[in-house]
Every structure is written in structure tokens, then in C-alpha cells.
Amino acid sequence: MLNLERLVSTVQKNCHISDARHAGDFTMCIFLLKMREFYRWENDIPFTCELPKSEVGEWLQQREHMWSDLETTSFEPLPLENRALDPFDADTINRELIPQGYVYSGGYGRFYKPHFFLGTLLKKEQRGGYTIYISSCEYARDLEAPPAMLQGKTIYVRQESVRRFLWEKIEEWRWNKKNEAMERALACYPFDTDADAALERMTQNETEAMILHELGEGLAGEKLGEEWHKLISALSRSKAEIMLRAVRDILADCLSTLPHLLAANNTASLHFYFANFGGMRKHLYPEALEAYRRWVKEPDLNILRTLVDSGQRRWQETARRLLDIYQEKGAHADTAIENLLEPAPAAAFCSNIKTA
User: Fold this and answer.
1) Same-domain check for residues 84 and 222
2) Which domain holds residue 106?
């Protein structure tokens, strides 16, 4: 029989090793926010309860001390029933865990930070050649805990992390109610009368939106090919990497997320999508928010459909140009990529959006 306690301990140790190596990737503000929520998860504190500031501060110091001891430690193989397996061999690991009701993931995220998690398997689906695992309770996780990830032909969606991600966004909005798109998204759910039920409905809705995005990532990957992964790897930990990931995110949403949300007339998820359309995506594609604002004033979904249609063409073309730069300049392509994207190549597409 599977020794779950030993497995959880090993996965969590690997999570700690990853955090020890990459905690410095965050700004101080983001780091502290993530640590607060990590403390909440470790101690199973409900979202609605205040965190004890002094205890969190003491825990933070202890965690940083532990990280200093683990930073140079190698990841440990996972102890399964009859053998130990590489923590990045998720497919083989899951062949043993899935029949027993668990699901595991080990892969790389932004800046090639390793992400690991182990949870209870809630559901398994097949869509368009992709296997989708949806988990519920999480037994082990790292600091960042991405709610959804694509690894090869497998999509992992972690509903506990989806729920925590949504709660963080809700709390962020409550502290500073300037995000009107978020206000519209939350108004689609009964948060004023039954916050728990509202959060659960929102979690189910956004779980589907995240699946659509990861499917879009898969479609984008098929169009861009293996050379795109080589490009990302060559420019790791640079501004160009952040820009490249944003380009692929936008393309994925134009290929899958937005078309399906529009087809389903899922206004709650559309508002939430644009409420979180920030950072590099907003910098590269401000026309998306312009189209959203037009749709709010003139509730005609064709405004957003026009955005999606032009966006598919624009970002596929942009990605091909970026690959051409990489083929020409190799690992020295970062400056040319930044120069291409910095004033986003919008002129040829702006007229399509503004006259829609």
C-alpha cells in the first residue's frame, strides 16, 4: 500500500527546496502576500479569519532559516510502492497514484521555477487530445501554487488553489475598489447574501475558464512548435522572457479562452478575465481593455469577437516574427525582441478594433 504520509513529506520537502532557490524572484510586496496565504494553507485557517500577525512573523523567520539550509539541497525522488521515481516524471508517478485517488504534478513555471503538488483527484477528463486532472484537497504545495498548468499533453487544475487565488483577488479588490471590472464580476455572484456559496460558484466557473486557457496554451504550442520552447529557454530570467510568455498567453486566450467564453455568453468570466488583464499583457495589448470598455458601454459581444479575430492573426504573426529573430540572433535575441514588442505592433490592428 502507498505510504501517503511519507510521500507527502517528500513532495513538501521538494516544494521547500524550490522555494528556497526562487523566493527572491518576487518583489517584497508579492512575497509577503504569498507567504501570508501559504501560512493560512499550512495552518488550515479559513479565508474569513484574520491571521495572527506575531505568529506569522515568527513563522516567516523560521521558514527563511529553513530555506537557507535547503537552498543547495537536491530534489528527492518520490517513494512509491516498489520504487523511487524522479520528481519530474509526473506521468509515471501518476500511473501509480491515479488509481488510488491521488494526483501529482512536477514541472517548471516562470523563470523555470520548479512547481510540485500532491492532491486528491476530483475528476479526470479528455478534451481535444489532452488529459485534464482536476484536484481538490492539496497535501503538499510550494509558495506560488499555480491554479492550472499545462505539461505536455496533460493539464492540471487545482481547485483548492483556484479557490485561494479567487479569494486573494476578492480581498485585493476590497482593499482598493478601483477595479470596476472586478466589481462587475463579483456582482454576478451572491457575495452579499451567501459568500461561501458565491465563492464555490465562482470557483466552478473559473475552473472552466482556466481549463480553456490551458487548452489554448496547447493550441498555441502546436502552432509555434518546439522552437518556441528553445527561445524561452535561451532568454530565461530576462525581460524578454516575460514578454514572450505574455505573447503566448494572449495568443492562447484568443485561440481558446475568449472564443469559448463568448460562445457560452459567460459574462461573469469575461468580466473576471479583463479584471485581471494586467502586467505585461496589458502593456503589450492595451487594445484588449479598450474593446472591453466599449463592450461595457455598448453590450454587443461582436465588439469582443472582433478583438478575438484580429488578435488571433496579430499574435500568430507577431510570434512568427519573434521566432525569425531568434533564428537569426540566437541567445542574443533579447534586445531585438524587446524593441519589436516594446511599442506593441498595434497600428495595423487598431483600426479594426476602433471601427468594430
Assistant:
1) no
2) 4-163
My answer on whether 296 and 345 are in the same domain is yes
Residue type (1 letter), 231: L
The residue count of the chain comes to: 356
Q: 148-176 burial by CB neighbour count: b if 16+ within 10 A, else e?
A: bbbbeebbbbbbbbbbbbbbebbeebeee
Same domain membership, residue 323 and residue 205: yes
Domain count of the fold of the chain: 2
Residue 172 in any domain: the answer is: no
Q: Is 135 left (phi over 0), alpha (psi -120 to 50) or beta?
A: beta
Taking the model in full, what pTM does it have?
0.90
3-state secondary structure 249-279: HHHHHHHHHHHHHHHCCCHHHHHHHHHCCCH
Beta bridge partners of 158: 135
pLDDT score, position 353: 37
pLDDT cut 70: percent of the chain above it = 96
Q: Rounded to whole angstroms, what are the CA distances from 39 to 46, 61, 78, 163, 299?
A: 11, 12, 24, 16, 42
pLDDT digits (tens, 9 = 90+) for 69-125: 999 999 999 999 889 999 999 999 999 999 999 999 999 988 789 999 999 999 999
Residue 273: count of CB within 10 angstroms of its CB: 22
Strands 130-141 and 154-158: parallel
Same-domain pairing of 276 and 134: no
**Tens of pLDDT, residues 272-328:** 999 999 999 999 999 999 999 999 999 999 999 999 999 999 999 999 999 999 999
Q: How far is CA 187 from CA 88, 97, 110, 209, 232, in A?
A: 41, 40, 32, 18, 39
Running DSSP on this structure, what letter comes out for residue 75? Answer: P
Residue 285 lies in a domain: yes
Residues 269 and 317 in one domain: yes
140 shares its domain with 9: yes
* Closest to 256 in 3D by CA, of 204, 302, 308, 293: 308
Residue 228 shares a structural domain with residue 350? yes
Q: What is the mean pLDDT of the chain?
A: 92
In a domain, 175, yes or no: no
Alpha-carbon gap, residue 322 to 318, rounded angstroms: 6
In a domain, 284, yes or no: yes
